[in-house]
Amino acid sequence: MAGLGKKVLIVYAHQEPKSFNGSLKDVAVAELGRQGCSITVSDLYAMDFEPRATRNDITGTLSNPETFSYGVEVYEAYKKAALSSDIVQEQKKVQEADLVIFQFPLYWFSVPAVLKGWMDRVLCQGFAFDLPGFYDDGFLKGKSAILSLTTGGTAEMYSKTGVSGDFRYFLWPLQHGTLHFCGFKVLAPQISFAPEFASEEERRGMVASWAERLKTIWKEEPIDCRPPWYFGQ
Amino acid sequence: MAGLGKKVLIVYAHQEPKSFNGSLKDVAVAELGRQGCSITVSDLYAMDFEPRATRNDITGTLSNPETFSYGVEVYEAYKKAALSSDIVQEQKKVQEADLVIFQFPLYWFSVPAVLKGWMDRVLCQGFAFDLPGFYDDGFLKGKSAILSLTTGGTAEMYSKTGVSGDFRYFLWPLQHGTLHFCGFKVLAPQISFAPEFASEEERRGMVASWAERLKTIWKEEPIDCRPPWYFGQ
């Protein structure tokens, strides 16, 4: 029971339960459950999660209704416990988690908009960071995070000499600019390359290797989430 | 009348018309209008633009209703002219434009979710690219694009030795992975650093320098949108 007492949040962004992303999410739930972890899944499409950052995220009156500043208003609302309930619920899940897994297909070298909206709205100033209070001092320090993603392109395309460049390049905004900024320890990404072009057997292999990795996930050391990991010297 | 007959689409993602982003959008409309350009603005928050990529983007029946694949279904729907009307309208605007300007505040080293959703949904396979038919062969070749963005952090933070790394690092997924992938010629980004920490005079200076740049925008050469521009070497 390697994960006994550990809490895991899986933030999952795929429309189809029977998809390859769905299988990766399901196998994580099964393996982590077997370890004795307590698991919560935020299934963003199923929740019809709101991605747009708007005035609706603040309940009650604004501090400056004349000129709306999302960042200022959300920071104030966080301190007054006046954020909308969907944001508060997600923040509670993050607060309780030891590990957050993001499971998604790569859309335009990044997360799908529904997951970008989760990051934009949930990881707000006051909750996830403050100024000062970011990067190694981010408020979510002590927690770990993993990006588990699928790509359309092949591993060869995402190599240093490939047309799409090293896969580490596109991870920078997500792993460093977002997760590290909030203080997360970032574990190595789990990238399943081009499952749509793979055989059924290869796809099963990718799912199995994710499950296998999760068996020892609590012993993993984080990456050194700074420029050399991404861009070399 | 440097821009006579030219068509410009401004994809604008800020909630507040009186914001600094709003001023940058307004000055672009004014300057390009003075040049004789025809200008269209997609004001994404005002339009309540849908960011989520879902089954609703396809009108009529699906090619595989058993297992929903967004990419497959949208590609088919594009070919059958069965995409939802909000996507079709944006695609028409892009098709007609010589230049697309994206005006937005940087959220998590990237675009706000509402603009990510515009990219996810509008720039679909068949319309913006095909396989093959990407990067230099992308279907939007012949058009130019500029990212005009504001940051929270200072220019010093976004330098090679700063805590957030060179600003070019976070541009990679947007400029290369998205715009270049679709064939756009990418003009140098217009970055207004930390307007919230600037004086009123400095902010006016940033708006004026954007207007000034736009006076000769039609003579600009695109950047060489490949790894050396971003990562050196």
Automatic annotation (TrEMBL), chains A, B:
Keywords: Cytoplasm, FAD, Flavoprotein, Metal-binding, Oxidoreductase, Phosphoprotein, Zinc. One of its GO terms (cellular component) is cytosol. Its EC number is 1.10.5.1. It catalyses: 1-(beta-D-ribofuranosyl)-1,4-dihydronicotinamide + a quinone + H(+) = beta-nicotinamide D-riboside + a quinol. It is found in: Cytoplasm. SUPFAM superfamilies: Flavoproteins. Residues 6-213 form the Flavodoxin-like fold domain. The keyword Metal-binding applies. GO terms for molecular function: dihydronicotinamide riboside quinone reductase activity; metal ion binding; NAD(P)H dehydrogenase (quinone) activity. Its main location: cytoplasm. It comes from the Eukaryota. It is an enzyme of class 1 (oxidoreductase). Its cofactor is Zn(2+); FAD. InterPro entries: Flavodoxin_fold, Flavoprotein-like_sf, NAD(P)H_dehydrogenase_qn. The enzyme apparently serves as a quinone reductase in connection with conjugation reactions of hydroquinones involved in detoxification pathways as well as in biosynthetic processes such as the vitamin K-dependent gamma-carboxylation of glutamate residues in prothrombin synthesis. Homodimer. Belongs to the NAD(P)H dehydrogenase (quinone) family. This is Ribosyldihydronicotinamide dehydrogenase [quinone].
